[in-house]
Every structure is written in structure tokens, then in C-alpha cells.
Amino acid sequence: MVGPLLCPVLGLARTGCVRRIRSGPVATFPTFSVFDDFGCCFCRRLRRRRDRMDAWLSASSFWIWARSNRSAPGDSPGAKTGSAVLAVCLMVALPALGAEPTPLQDDATLRDVQFIGAANGYAVGEHGAVWKTTDGGQRWTFVPTPTQASLRSASFLTDQIGFVAGVEWLPYARLPMGVLLKTVNGGQTWHPVGDGLLPGLEYVRFFDLEEGVVVGCASPSGPSGVWTTTDGGETWTAVDGPTSRGWRAARFLAPDLGIVAGADGQLSLVGGEQLLPARIPSLGNRTVRDVTVNSEAVGWLVGEGGLVLSSSSGGVSWQTPAGPLPESVPAIFDFHCVEQRGSQVWLAGAPGTVIWHSPDNGTTWTSHPTGQTTPIHRLRFSSDRNGVAVGALGNILATRDGGHTWRAVHGGQRRAAVLVMPSRTRRFAPELLAPLSLEQGYRTVLHVPVSTSSLEGFASRDQATELLDTTVQNLGGHAVGMGRQLAVDLPGLDRDAEKLQARWQAQSEGRAAQTLLGSLVRELRMWRPNVVVIEEPALNDVYGEWLRQAVLTAVDQARDATRELDQIDVGGLSTWSVDRVFVQLPADSQGEVTFDLQAPLPRAGNSAQLRAAPARSLWEPPLPPRDTLAFRRVYPTDHTPINGDLLAGLNVLPGSAARRSLDAISEHDLEAAQRRVQRTRNLAAIADTAEPGSAKSAQLVAQWPDVAKDWPPERAAELLAEAAQRFRRDAQLDHAEAIYLELVRRYPQQPAALDGLRWLLQYWTSAEVAWRRQQSRGVMQAQWTTDGAGTAGRVEQAQATGSDFLAAPRTISDV
């Protein structure tokens, strides 16, 4: 059976090259029959090229999806008409400058801030948030943008002309797409820049209207992760260099002169249109978070574990500063940003309690309190006296005396309501955030105390953190952290107490207990949550049980002023008392608090299970869906009734420090959402009781598309994708095939169609399926209409983007 987007694929497979279709911009292919005999020479050749096609389809199907086709008569209801660009760059009618931000944007984490002169500045962050000041940072106005992407960097040439850059992860496709927007009128309007080939971006700098540079993820077309432009960003040229693991920081003095840095101590110079090595001490597994260099060749870099290095050679060589910071700083601070002006240097990070200042190029250091605790991600000074710091929960701080005193001008005193601490990266349940953070507005933070990323298929801890952060932001959460010093990095280590203890002692120079407890106490004092959520460990999970005990001990120590004194004296943190600690129980359990994840959420417009589906799809393999989440209170143990809510009775009100304001609920929208969710829930319940392969099961396949018609297109596509996943889990692959075909036919523009298209190709080229269908000797027919004229160009574009999460199953048993 052939789907509506497969013909270009068949053309590629048959000839071994990309062929342009000659029949005009829209090629209509005649009806034809495909006998269930996959043993022909064509299919053998197709199977031999499956590996190549898997990679091609993962990317090229995105481009086929991402650009609209002109509708032909008889097109499905999901077809679109007219030209289109990437979904992340759609031009939309924006509210007037100064419009109110949504609750999600109001407390969105801010990643960068830049000043143009002494008065005008812009700050950018999550959920497409942009803020503007015209008085040196004392007051800020929200600036709407046509994206919900994570904006990581800003570059303004004047107070009117500038660029913002970032990344938007496409669900189901698992592609980090670069976002680059330009304004020429101070943010009143924005339009996308570029040729669509850029992956996720971390840094942008334009030197004039024509020349610029961007830095971000590595891709097949730019393994170095650095690109330059000479035509205002319309086209980009990759800088030569080895494949990077993704850059997190950069600073350029000219398009061909700069420094890039990232995970695991990566650091390279950019010169002569190529990446060059730098001489730097071993940084271990610490990620470099920020780097700067000035025209006098003086540079600074900072990172995790209190990392601070300076350079007097323009970044060629690096050394510790002349005056070291206090000895306890590496155990307390992860530095995220550095700013320098002349001989003055400022450092900040997590916790954001103090900003360190040196007036003499690092010879002496002084800490200055900020009045808040959450992480600071960027520092900028427009003069020696006026500066701004931005960071988590939308906080903006301003100083007028060179950083000696700081005042919160937006988001002051915000904190977390809930701190979730899973034992492993994949143990996190995204569905929890839908009712807690997205629906009820509780500010929620995720922290994985011990890294397990190497055992879970990640190339680095930084990569796992990025995926977790994307998942959390997608569901209204706020921040993600992961322990660095301790790791469960060997198979079986989590079940062997003796080996685990020896491994942790080796990783922490014999201070495993102090290291773990100190890091947990720091997180509690920094985020100041009302509620902490941990896991109920399995019987043989030694690591999980140790972590549970450590969290409960840390809760006691966090409120004790005699514990972790350096965090108070040097770090500026204060004691904090947690109200409750819950353990998340195994699947299908009942607890004091139980979330029905299939129940409708009024503000989300669907259930927590369905709302979390795009976030789950970002993972490979996708995280399993959950029907319920149950919790049991383990602290305090006074058995006070809690009325079935994690935060019931704690007086955490909307608009308070730990909870964002809530949108009003429309009664009409609520009733419609309840009807949609209930109908979907009823059908899912019937499907659970239907015998696989029965007539009843087959009838359900025809009902899913009808149910989906009641939903908005994006949600309808996600609903069909979830239904297909259900059939796949039950090994009803023919039913999954039928649902995926409906998904691709009805909603080809939605990201969920990509996963369906990729699975269909694997399914249709499977030797196992070929044999089974050959036995039945059935005949199937299909007809489609597709845009063939631009296929070659789209393939070329698709091959320019890449993702570490695109790996697909290789056998039908895994599909």
C-alpha cells in the first residue's frame, strides 16, 4: 500500500538519484496496483538501501511536510493552499508593541540581554518572549514575536534593527530547527531570515546589515556548528572544522574571528574560516556556559563547578585568574555568564544569590547580593555603572552603581512550587506537568541529582539536559538541572551497593555522601519549593533507595542553619523548609493523591495524557503514556488530610511568588473540550477491551478519524498518532498502518504526520511484512496527489539538518 507522499521516495529508490518530476508543479499520479509480493528486484534494492532511506526520510519528510502544497480538486480537508515557510517562521498578525504577555511568557526563562547605547536594550527567552527597555533597564515592555521557540541570543545593530536566534524542537520529527528572526522597526514586526538549513542556534551576531555569524548544533551541512553570512542572513556558509557536540557559548569580534565553547570542556578558536584548537587545562565533564574576549585580547570563560578561566592572548591559551575565588565556590556555584568592561569583570550563575565582581582583571573579588536565589543566565553592562541581569522565571535585575546593589525590576522573589527529582532521565513523567504547571500554573522545576545519561543512550550529559529542558518547557515547566559530580555510568551499578559506593567515592575524591547531600540542599535552598516529588524505588534498586534517603535527609538539612554553612556564608543562600515530600508510586497504584491523566483540563483543552504526547514524542524511543499518576506522602508523617492535591491547603495562590497568573476559562470552550475528551476516552476504553484481531477491533479503526474531526488540526493529528501507537504496542500493525495512513492523508502539514510517514516506509519495506502479505496474496490500490517539482531541492535542504534523536527502529519487531 502506498501513501500520499511516497512517490518521490520510490523515484529515489528506483534510480539511485533524485529526479525532478516533469509534469509541472503538481504531479498527479494514476491509480495503480501493488501486489503483496515484496520479493521483486525493486523491493530487494529498496531494502538494501533502507539505512540510507531511513536517514533521508527522517529529514526529507519534514521538508515535504513543512512547505505547503497547492491544493488540487478533491484534496483532503487537511490540505493547505498557497506558499508556506517553516512553521516556526510563519508571519502572523502581531499584537501592538507593549501587549500583555501570556502567563507562560511572563515568567519564561530569559537567556540573553543586549544593550544598544545606554538606554535601549532587549532581553529574549523561552516561549518566544522578548522584552524591551528604553530607560537603561529600569522598566521593560513585552514585545510579541511570531514564534513560541526558545530564543537563546539577540543581536541589535540599532534600537530598531536587530536579530533574535534560537531553537524549536519539532515533535515527532525530533528535529532541532533553527529560528532566526529580524526586525527593522524595534520589534513591531518580525520576519524570518535564512534559507531554512540552519539547525538549533545558541548565538547570533551581526556586524552590519550584511555580515553575521551564528553558532549552534552540528548538522550534516555544518558539522562545525558555525555559519557565516555576507548577504544579511539569506544564505549561510559553514565554517570548516571537525564535528562538534554542540556549542553553548560564543563570542565574535568579527565574522572570521571568535571563540566557541560547549559541553565537556570543548573550546575552539574561529579564524580564517576554520576552527582552530585552543590551549586549555582539562575541564573534565564541565560545560562552558559563557565566554568573552575584547579587542585588547583579554578574555574570560565560565562554566559549571565554579569554572573561571582568563586569557591574555585572545583565547589561544587559558589559565586561572590571578586572584582565586573562595575555596568553596566550586561546590556551590555553576557560573552561567561573564561580563567585562575594561579591567572590570562580573560573574553570575546558579544560585543567583550573589554576583561576583573584580575591579582589577581578577586580582581581587567581591560578592554582591541580588536579593533573589534563582539562576542568572546573562549579564550586560551598558556603562561602568548601569547593568542588567536576566534569568530563570523571567527575573530581571538592574544596577546603577556598577553591581554593588541590585534591584528586581521584573519577576522579583519568584520561586518554585514543586521540585521534581527523578532518579533517572527516562523515569520522568511529562504528564505530571500538564495538570500542575500548564493547567494550574504552579512553577515547577526538574532536577536529576545523579547523571544516568550514558546508560540511557545519550552522547553527553548536556544532551540529556537539553532534551529534558525542551520537554519541561513544552508543558509549562520552568527549569531543568542535572547532577555533574556523581554518575551511574556502568551497567548493573544501580543494583550493587558495594560497587556503587566504590564508584561514587572515586568520582568525588572520597566525599560521595557530602557531595550528594550538599548538592541536594543547594537545590532546595535555591528553588525554595513547597513540595518535592521523588520516586518509589524498586526492591532491587539500591541507587534509587539511596537517593530517596538522601532527599529526605537533605530536606531536614536545608532548614537547619548549622548545615552546609558555606552555602549561607559564601553562597548567600538561606535556610528553607519544604512543606511536603511525595513519592511517585508504580503504575496502576492508588495513593493519597492520584491524577487521572485522561480527564479533561479546561485551559489545555484536552487531557494531560494527550497534551503531553508531543513532549513524549521528542524522545527516542518515545516515553510511554500513562493513564494515572499516584503519590504517597512520606514527609511530614503526621497524616494531616491533604484532600487529594499535592499542594492543597498550602495557600499557593495564582499570581504569587510560586504560581503564575491563570487565564480565564470559557464555559463554551470548557464544554467543548469535555465532550471531545470524553468521546476520545470512551473509544480508548472500548479499544482496551477489544480482542486483538477481532471484528470489534477492526471497527474501532474506522472510528478514530471521526473522533479526531472534533479536534483542532494539530490536536487531531496528535490524537491519531496516539491511537496508532496504541495499536503498535498491541502488535496490531495492520490497524496502526490504517491509522497512520489517515493521519498522513488528513493532516499532512502537522508534525505528527512525520512519525507516521517514517513508520509506514519501514513497515512497507519490511521483509517480515512482505512475507506475511505474500501469503495472503491481497491486492491494494492507492492514488495520491503530491508536489513533485520541488522534491530535489527539499531533499537537498533536508540533508542539511540533522538530529541525534532521529535513529529509527531497524526491524519490524521493534516498530
Note the main attributes of this structure:
815 residues; alpha+beta; Methylamine Dehydrogenase, Chain H; Rossmann fold; 4 domains; seven-stranded mixed sheet; four-stranded antiparallel sheet; 20 helices
Can you walk through the features of this model?
With 815 residues, the protein is of the alpha+beta class. It folds into 4 domains: 136 residues, no CATH class; 137 residues, 7 Propeller (Methylamine Dehydrogenase, Chain H), CATH 2.130.10; 218 residues, Rossmann fold; 82 residues, no CATH class. Helices cover 27% and strands 24% of the residues. The protein contains 20 helices and 40 strands. The strands form 11 sheets. A 7-stranded mixed sheet has the order 32-31-30-33-34-38-35, sandwiched between helices. It has a 4-stranded antiparallel sheet with strand order 3-4-5-6, with no helix packed on it. Helix 3 packs antiparallel against helix 18, helix 3 packs across helix 20 and helix 14 packs antiparallel against helix 15. It comes from Schlesneria paludicola. This is Photosynthesis system II assembly factor Ycf48/Hcf136-like domain-containing protein. Pfam families: PSII_BNR.
